[in-house]
Write a structure and sequence with these properties.
288 residues; 3-stranded antiparallel sheet; 10 strands; 22% strand
């Protein structure tokens, strides 16, 4: 079922029509009462009654709002024009907000692609696009949005690992744009039948579950330490190589292979040590 425009007319001009009909009915009634004109009295009362019944057709439409019109249970259209409107008095009306809305899902505990338990939550920005589908295709479209969002969030979280172990593979923590786009598409697929459009969806909370948080923190720290040590060693080797080349090119000192190895060892200890080293002054010969 798709939305279409329902019958309604501007309400302000129709107020004048109702006033005119009421004036006509009252005039006929007042003129017929003294003469006891039964037909005139009936016509006057009928005109006033019809006018009073027509007042039931007035309704207001606020900006970014729709009024779903039904005639004895049958969908008759949607009125979206803002202001005072008038329609068939037999129509029933249901207000539907077309404004942009957002909500934050609760923290869900799911397993990521690697099987690690994580906590995840999302913020979704959405609005109703088709009022007919929102009212007639689902029972409660607001509750439907919340439940389907959590379902899509679970499905998305299970498709990616928390951390990327391969450079080319996206992860929940490192590829925010990819993850948010996937989440938005997952939610939109589920909410399309409810006439709802998803404007934006993004992760608002992401963490390892409490039972493995400490172990995963140690793992991350170990990875950071290894990466830092690798960088330090690469730099230290480059500096030692540069020092040996400078000494050899300038002819400052001639070292055999054994003394070169000892020098390299000492320099690496100095450059790679976590703490400041203490210098030892050799007062003898180089070979003592």
């Amino acid at each position: 079922m798709n939305e279409h425009q329902g019958f309604s007319v501007a309400g302000i001009p129709f107020v004048g029509v109702c006033l005119a009909l009421f004036a006509v009915g009252a005039t006929v009634l007042l003129r017929s009462a003294p003469d006891q004109d039964t037909a005139g009295i009936i016509a006057g009362f009928a005109t006033i009654f019809v006018t009073a019944f027509m007042l039931k057709g007035f309704f207001q439409v606020a900006p970014n709002e729709g009024q779903v019109l039904q005639l004895f249970g049958k969908y008759a259209g949607t009125a979206r024009l803002a202001g005072l409107r008038w329609t068939n008095p037999f129509f029933s009306k249901q207000r539907i907000s077309l404004r942009v809305r957002n909500f934050e899902s609760g923290k869900l505990k799911v397993n990521d692609n690697d099987g690690n338990p994580i906590e995840i939550a999302a913020v979704v920005v959405w609005q109703v696009l088709d009022t007919a589908e929102a009212v007639f295709c689902v029972d409660d479209y607001e509750n439907y949005v919340h439940i389907q969002t959590e379902s899509a969030l679970r499905q998305m979280a299970q498709s990616y690992p928390y951390d990327a172990h391969d450079d080319g593979k996206p992860s929940l923590r490192s590829h925010g744009e990819v993850i948010n786009s996937h989440l938005r598409d997952e939610i939109q697929t589920r909410l399309g039948k409810a006439g709802v459009g998803v404007i934006e969806a993004r992760i608002s909370h992401l963490a390892y579950a409490q039972e493995i948080a400490q172990a995963m923190l140690q793992r991350q720290q170990a990875g950071a330490i290894i990466a830092a040590r690798t960088r330090i060693v690469e730099g230290a080797v480059s500096m030692v190589e540069m020092a040996l080349d400078q000494l050899n090119n300038r002819g400052v000192v001639q070292l055999d292979e054994e003394r070169k190895a000892a020098m390299v060892s000492n320099l690496l200890v100095v450059l790679c040590s976590e703490r400041g080293t203490q210098a030892v002054v050799n007062t003898g010969t180089l070979y003592n």
